[in-house]
Amino acid sequence: MRQASVGFQCPDCVSQGAKQTRSGRSPYGGARVANPALTSMVLVGINAAVWVAVVATGWRKSPLVDWLSLHALGLCNTADGTGWFPGVTDKAACEAIPANFYPGVADGAWWQLITSTFLQVDVWHIGFNMVALWILGPQLELAIGRARFLALYLISGLAGSACVYWLAGEQTSTLGASGSVYGLMAALLIVAFKVGGQVQTILIWIGINVAFTLVGGFSWQGHLGGFAGGAAIMAVLVYAPRARRTPVQVTGIVLITLVVLAAIVARTAVLT
Question: Which structural domain range is residue 233 located in?
Answer without folding.
Answer: 25-271
